[in-house]
């Protein structure tokens, strides 16, 4: 693309007012991600010219990518005045609306295209991206990815994204099956998300349900999930990310041990990983405090709770923490 742009520049030196060359050149600059150059050329050479739609669309993209949303919308609307069914312009307006966090307007533009062309790949892709910006649209994302997979069954990235959305929905079993059937599609961070979900679900089940404490198989599985999660973290994340993830993983482990009344192990683990305790979420801090109390060490329990409040690990209104204190 860079070489082609150079050829166009040489041609324009010979024919500086050749409208087709100018339109193609500004389009080529946009394709090559030279957005500022495209806008500069448009402003200096093409501002008062009647450009073809593809060139106007290219300039609108460059305006959007450089943050000039007003110009981008103006150009898209200019195209649509002449051709109301120019889908690239409609989807371009949707993309600008997403950038401006106007999600309702963005979806309206996208659905306008999909109402006429339900299999418009760019529209479906943009809709999936839109839903990805909203925490309450996970189910809708899965539906969009299903539609995209119908159109391109061998699209590995769409398959991957659909699986990750299953994890977001808490559907761990089908996500695990999909990942293990095609492990080459998934990144290390995807496996970490799976292990984190398995770890959290199995430990919370035992901690929140007294009957599960008596189920040796479930207890062993919870410890296994926690071990696998910790091993994967050890081999993966950068130092900063790893420490925070470690803190949460160990908080889950002390929650499990405390629920099993294995208080000495909780205290031992907290002392071994004392550098992580200040980063643990509240359930880890409270589990450590409860274990100290169970082992008749109220001063240590109070220190842990006080530090939790001071580090903003525990909310000031946390009734369990206040009761323990």
Walk me through the topology.
Layout: H1 2-14, H2 19-31, H3 35-46, H4 53-65, H5 69-82, H6 87-99, H7 103-116, H8 121-132, H9 138-151, H10 156-168, H11 172-181, H12 188-208, H13 216-234, H14 239-259, H15 263-272, H16 282-294, H17 298-310, H18 319-324
Distance between the termini: 67 Å
Q: What profile does the largest beta sheet have?
A: none
How would the global form be characterised? Answer: elongated
| Rg of Cα set | 28 Å
Poorly predicted runs of 5 or more residues:
none
Structural class by sheet pairing and helices: mainly alpha
Element-level helix/strand string: HHHHHHHHHHHHHHHHHH
State the helical fraction.
over 70%
Strand content: under 5%
Mean pLDDT: 89
Number of E strands: 0
Number of distinct helices? 18
